[in-house]
Design goal:
The chain has 346 residues and is α/β, with parallel strands linked by helices. The protein contains 8 helices and 15 strands.
């Protein structure tokens, strides 16, 4: 480990430019710069060594700039920005000290000087793998917890449907629903993922949406009694089919609409009148508004993990040099489980 204030080489993954749509490997390039292992005098910044970086579906180009967006992952000749797990080397911030492990928004490089410290969380529980804080115990896990409990108010015995169920968010929503005593069905994009939803994550039923020519029929097959709760990660045709199958006073939490992100013309939704007839509540949310609930989330989920009641699948890419291909792969479903890039293990 380099000494205080020493300049060290810092390998980075940079963006060539802003991007439109899903990232390609050619949108990124490698660079080695140098960084001083010292926090500027009098600042509240935190210097970290990055350990694990998270690949998530929001890390793409956006057609229209979104107000209040916390950050964009791609900016010209700047390191890629995303969530990660890191070790504090030096801190000017009272909440963080040397040797702490943290998770939050960082950059795709070996060492980062973090100025946006309000999106850093100190990791208190290190008896679980640190990489879990990129997924199950980090932003995706919080997304699952918030959407399911805060927006959907689930009750035992309800019928729950999760789209993109094999993603980092979906796997947890389904398992939380099962632990509550709900009937749970998920959709995913391959036979392997469908099989694992049932065998590893305990879903009651699952289907491959790519093989269903009629989504309405697929949902009626899985939910002859209808759906109480839909956790939506995809939008589009799936949401439209779900609207026909909701039960009275059903709830839909919209965490994302991955089917719509790259379309010049977003698809329309035809079945919105179901909202009226069935008294359905549909609500979109962003996890940033709920981070104050993080302690409650850990209190619920950590015991389940320690008792082996929640399963979690990670897909690990070793080394920053394999980061770009790992990130690109998640947009075509190459990953099996939560995609993580290991920069260093300690």
């Amino acid at each position: 480990m380099a000494g205080d204030g020493e300049e060290v080489r810092n390998k980075q993954v940079l963006a060539r430019d802003y991007i439109d749509g899903n990232p390609k490997e050619t949108d990124m390039y490698f660079n080695t710069s140098s960084i001083s292992l010292k926090v500027p005098e009098g600042s509240k910044e935190v210097l970290v060594k990055n350990l694990y970086l998270s690949c998530d579906p929001y890390m793409r180009g956006i057609k229209a700039k979104i107000p209040d967006r916390l950050f964009y992952s791609f900016a010209p000749h700047s390191p890629i920005v995303g969530y990660g797990v890191a070790k504090v080397l030096e801190s000017g911030h009272p909440d963080f000290k040397k040797g702490d492990f943290v998770w939050g928004v960082t950059k795709w490089e070996e060492y980062s000087l973090i100025t946006m410290t309000e999106s850093l969380f100190k990791i208190q529980h290190t008896d679980v793998p640190l990489s879990y804080y990129t997924g199950l115990l980090g932003m995706p896990g919080m997304t699952a917890y918030t959407g399911f409990y805060e927006l959907c108010s689930p009750k035992k015995g309800e019928y729950v449907f999760v789209s993109s169920a094999f993603g980092a968010v979906g796997q947890l929503v389904g398992q939380l629903a099962k632990l509550m005593g709900c009937y749970v069905v998920g959709s995913a994009g391959s036979k392997e993922k469908v099989d694992m939803l049932k065998s590893k994550f305990g879903f009651d039923e699952a289907f491959n949406y790519k093989e269903e020519h009629d989504l309405d029929a697929a949902l009626k097959r899985c939910f002859p009694e209808g759906i109480d709760i839909y956790f939506d990660n995809v939008g589009g045709k799936m949401l439209d089919a779900v609207l026909l199958n909701m039960r009275f006073h059903g709830r839909i939490a919209v965490a994302g609409m991955i089917s719509q992100y790259n379309l010049d013309q977003p698809e329309g939704i035809r079945n919105l009148l179901s909202l009226v007839y069935k008294r359905i509540r549909i609500e979109g949310f962003t996890v940033y508004d709920y981070y104050h609930l993080f302690p409650n989330f850990l209190d619920l989920v950590l015991p389940y993990i320690r008792e082996g009641k929640i399963a979690y699948v990670e897909d690990t890419a070793e080394g920053l040099e394999n980061g770009p291909s790992a990130l690109v792969g998640i947009f075509s479903g190459q990953n099996v489980g939560k995609q993580v890039v290991v920069v260093a293990r300690e």
